[in-house]
Write a structure and sequence with these properties.
By secondary structure, the protein is of the alpha/beta class. It is built from 13 helices and 7 strands. The relative contact order is 0.11.
Amino acid sequence: MSDVRRPARALGKGLDSLLPRVTASAPAMPEETTGKPMEVPVGEIDRNPFQTRTHFDEKLLDELAASITANGVVQPILVRPLPNGRFQLIAGERRWLASQKAGKETIPAFLRQVSDEQAMEITIIENLQRADLNPMEQAKAFDRLSREFGMTQEQMAYRVGQPRSSISNFLRLLKLPESVQAKVSSGVLSFGHAKTLLVLESPADAEQAANKILALSLSVRQAETYVQNLLHPDWPPKKEAPEPTPIDPNVREAQERLQRALGLRVRIEDKDGRGRVIIEYARLEDFDAVMEKIVGD
């Protein structure tokens, strides 16, 4: 199991403080902009150009669309008016996409008059607080908050409700080679495994170690030992950790198939046809998804 857990939480004061309501000095808008949601045509909303997420699970979108068909959109989205009469999405892209799948003509939305900078900041923080971003998406979101808004790690930690040390660990992932970052983004390499590679200064060493970890299906603890042995090959002189036994190619293929099917890291421990299958998950949502795939509702 990954050593990072992000319990589901409601939006904190950080996001709400970024949502200025339309004042008398702002351009004249419908009465709904004063705080009540209004029904906005789905086709008149443009996608958020500041969106942090790069991937939306189609199966989860289909499930949300089915829920919206049955119950409607429970929580309004956030949009801002554009000069051309259309609207631009600020927060709630999953609800907007699912509403399109559900064939909805309108969607409840709060209208807010915000600048490009405010819209970008709101989007990033809303995603960090509520969405299931992968570790690299989180790292890049924190990096944008630091570079483009000058936020300190303490300020980011307060806004998204995470310890400052977690923010630091995510940002450090950006030091890894692009090839290793891609493995973390895809879920093949876990956050815990990626952290063990950060002590390797050479990008080539980090990439080689990542490939070794995957080839031998090392646990995080085993990966830490392996990396420490790379850094200190002569210590301890008489008690060096033995080289992990390479796994059978058929077992490795089965692992990879399960990982692709479940979207999670899987380890198979096999000996003469007997063993166990270990599925690692970082969030309760991942566990629920595995349960649904294996045993159904």
